[in-house]
Description:
single chain, alpha+beta, extended, four-stranded antiparallel beta sheet, disordered N terminus, 365 residues, 32% helix, disordered C terminus
Amino acid sequence: MMASVYSAKEEDGHRSGSAASGDERSNKPDNTAFKQQRLPAWQPVLTAGSVLPAFFIIGLLFIPIGIGLFVTSNTIREFEIDYTGVEKSSPCFSCTQPFGSNQSCKCSVPFTLRESFEGNVFMYYGLSNFYQNHRRYVKSRDDRQLNGNTYALTHPSQVCSPYDYNNNVPIAPCGAIANSLFNDSFELFYMQDNGNKTRIPLVKKGIAWWTDKHVKFRNPAGDNLTAAFQGTAQPISWHRPAYELDPSDPDDNGFINEDFIVWMRTAALPNFRKLYRIIQKNRDRRAPTLPHGNYTLEVTYNYPVISFDGRKRMVLSTITWMGGKNPFLGIAYMTVGSICFVLGLVLLVIHYKYGSPNNNADLSN
């Protein structure tokens, strides 16, 4: 009887031990190359034969590229005028003083170009200390409205608040970005020696991205744009409604107005410039687009910046195959290339002075 009891206990223990050993075996990874980490691997061995040529090749490639980019950037003509009017001596100082909200102030800023501008010349307006990258500012827009959605026109998104309704009337376009639309305007005149002035034609078509103009921004459906915007209010800071943004060009009104589209593409930095107009090159290729001499910039001063210590400027610039003036890229290439070349020389001296005599490619010593 006792033997049978002990046998039963031993059998139970044997079964439990077998179950435990089975659990242990089930937790072991499979005997595969992947799970047992037996896959083939490649690990680079840094030797003088591989490191030194890499440093010299990078240096010899980056330095000429940097010089080319830097020289190309320096060939770009650029001229900048600050017309904020903070200083009393500024021609636009009177426009910074309080005046009626429905009035526009005009000022004339004379300047001189010491060098002629060849090819197409791009006119930009620039703002400083204006944070278009603020999170709430960037979100304050209704892309359904801007894409011509009729329902969104009269039911703006809540992200536009507090620029979604004006006295319970929906605003179109809504949001802080649209409400702060830059509305200064410029006219450029060339002052001739005989005292006459010649207006420089400023081309507006083509200043916005093609995808923005034809894909992201669309007017509400309908032939009558004025009727499409019925039941909506213009943004609080605008002087005229969206369907009359450009009275001189009926095809450039509403949400497809190119000045509006350019402004709606927010800038990443607080100091930025945006394309305003294009001065197309002279058909007579021998004549410069903007000859050197005296000019006058006629400014219709509407946009206030003094309240937030901002600055306004107008920029004239040519471009090359690499775009606008940007010396940083060339300097960066030359700096990296020079550092790599110098490091290559230093490591080469160390290798030949302290390297192992048995293995010239060994840097471990």
